[in-house]
């Protein structure tokens, strides 16, 4: 019994949050909304301008007011430059066999029967003759 050592205590309720390293240098952040939200509402508001920062807190501009929030509720906002060129649209190549296929499809449509529920019924050729 004397050789038994006590186990280390577990710390329930001490949540560890991931803190993005780029929060130390970003100019804008998204702020997590910590309240019960109706369906289909975004979990973050922003982007908000960062006025000043400390190790654990950020002072952001929230609707014209300076608000101090913890870094646990913040996520860095990455803004893309507007100089990204749009992708080129692919050219449509006309197929020389497209006319034949459209004629064949028109012939096949005349042989197709449609049920009153809108389903297409294809009977085998040996039964149609």
In short:
Helix content is 14%, strand content 26%. The chain is an alpha+beta fold and 129 residues long.
Q: What does this entry look like structurally?
A:
The protein has 129 residues and is α+β, with helices and mostly antiparallel strands. It has a domain at 21-77: SH3 type barrels, CATH 2.30.30.140. The protein is 14% helix and 26% strand. It has two helices and seven strands; from the N terminus they run E-E-E-E-E-H-E-E-H. Strands 4-3-2-1-5 form a five-stranded antiparallel beta sheet, with no helix packed on it. The longest helix is centred in the last third of the chain and has 14 residues, at 98-111. The chain is elongated.
Layout of helices and strands, plus pairs?
Layout: E1 28-32, E2 44-53, E3 57-62, E4 65-70, E5 74-76, H1 98-111, E6 113-114, E7 120-121, H2 125-128
Antiparallel strand pairs: 1-2, 1-5, 2-3, 3-4, 6-7
CATH architecture of the domain at 21-77: Roll
Q: What is the residue-averaged pLDDT?
A: 80
Order of helices and strands: EEEEEHEEH
Count all strands and give the number: 7
Helix % is 10-25%
Which strands sit side by side, in order, in the main sheet? Answer: 4-3-2-1-5
Quaternary structure state of the chains depicted: single chain
**pLDDT below 50 for ≥5 consecutive residues: which ranges?**
none
Under CATH, the topology of the domain at 21-77 is which? Answer: SH3 type barrels
Strand content: 25-35%
Descriptors:
129 residues, alpha+beta, SH3 type barrels, 7 strands, 14% helix, elongated
């Amino acid at each position: 019994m004397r050789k038994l050592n006590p186990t280390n205590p577990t710390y329930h309720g001490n949540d560890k949050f991931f803190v993005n390293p780029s929060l130390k240098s970003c100019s804008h952040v998204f702020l997590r909304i910590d309240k019960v939200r109706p369906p289909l509402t975004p979990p973050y508001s922003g982007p908000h301008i960062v006025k000043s920062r400390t190790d654990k807190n950020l002072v952001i501009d929230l609707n014209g007011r300076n608000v101090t929030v913890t870094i646990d509720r913040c996520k860095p906002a990455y803004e893309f430059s507007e100089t990204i060129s749009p992708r080129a649209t692919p050219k449509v190549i006309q197929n020389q066999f497209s006319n034949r296929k459209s004629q064949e499809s028109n012939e096949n449509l005349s042989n197709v029967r449609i049920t009153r529920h809108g389903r297409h019924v294809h009977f085998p050729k040996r039964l149609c003759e």
